[in-house]
């Protein structure tokens, strides 16, 4: 069992890396941007998605629900494979990369690219929720049972601090967009999506480097 300080801190850094997606994108900024982008001149909340007309909020809910459904369907199989082969890090890397790249892809989400935006939302959500499964699975393997609650709380605090910092930076960027050279708030907001993805995949390299490669139950 590996419980060195470097490994534990690296595990906590994954929370620092991916929590920005949940707070900045999922909770705070993206829903506002999405509503603004999908509004039309007739003040209607209906959008056309691959030829199907539906309410914008319903479409967004469907995309998130589908991501959770896909995660629920594939994770039992992947978790079993990961436990059997000891390749938790491999799947953690796969879903982290998927989520972060999809988040960066949201930079290209405008009123003219609704389908692209929704696909990116679905994949980013799938990457985030699925990555957490393999991240959480590491905890009992890198620390004794007597320390898991303490280390879990430390990881949460890392995530809270990182996401709060990124949210503040994002709000400053959007609020004072002209000072940063953006034409409007939309450009600044889409840049936030790009920065969140870069933050996510960038800081995730710390746990992906230092967590043990082969961990067996």
List the SSEs and their pairings.
Blueprint: H1 5-38, E1 46-49, E2 52-55, H2 56-85, H3 88-105, H4 114-142, H5 148-175, H6 185-203, H7 205-210
Antiparallel strand pairs: 1-2
Please characterize this protein's 3D structure.
The chain contains 7 helices and 2 strands. The chain is mainly α. It has a single domain (5-210), classed as Growth Hormone, Chain: A, CATH 1.20.1250.20. It has a two-stranded antiparallel ribbon. Helix 1 runs antiparallel to helix 6 (185-203) and helix 3 packs antiparallel against helix 6.
Could you give a quick summary of the protein structure above?
With 217 residues, the protein is mostly helical.
Under CATH, the homologous superfamily reads: MFS general substrate transporter like domains
Q: In angstroms, what separates the terminal alpha carbons?
A: 10 Å
Which residue ranges are poorly predicted, with pLDDT under 50 across at least 5 consecutive positions? none
Q: How many strands, which pairing sense, and closed or not: the largest β-sheet?
A: 2 strands, antiparallel
Order of helices and strands: HEEHHHHHH
Number of domains: 1
Write out the strand line-up for the largest beta sheet, numbering strands in chain order.
1-2
Name the average pLDDT: 91
Number of distinct beta strands:
2
Number of helices: 7
């Amino acid at each position: 069992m590996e419980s060195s300080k470097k490994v534990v801190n690296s595990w906590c850094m994954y929370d620092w890396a991916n929590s920005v997606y949940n707070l900045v994108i999922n909770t705070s900024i993206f829903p506002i941007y999405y509503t603004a982008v999908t509004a039309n001149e007739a003040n209607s909340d209906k959008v056309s998605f691959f030829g199907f007309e539906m309410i914008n909020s319903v479409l967004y809910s469907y995309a998130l629900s589908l991501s959770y459904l896909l995660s629920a369907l594939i994770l039992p199989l992947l978790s079993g494979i990961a436990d059997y082969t000891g390749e938790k890090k491999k799947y953690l890397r796969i879903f982290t990369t998927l989520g972060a790249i999809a988040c960066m892809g949201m930079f290209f989400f405008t009123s003219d690219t609704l389908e692209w935006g929704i696909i990116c939302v679905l994949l980013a959500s799938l990457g985030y929720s699925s990555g957490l499964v393999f991240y959480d699975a590491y905890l009992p393997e890198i620390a004794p049972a007597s320390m898991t609650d303490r280390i879990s709380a430390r990881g949460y605090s890392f995530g809270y601090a990182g996401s709060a910092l990124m949210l503040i930076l994002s709000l400053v960027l959007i609020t004072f967009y002209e000072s940063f050279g953006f034409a409007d708030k939309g450009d600044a907001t889409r840049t936030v999506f790009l920065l969140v993805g870069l933050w996510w995949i960038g800081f995730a390299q710390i746990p992906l480097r230092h967590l043990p490669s082969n961990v067996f139950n």
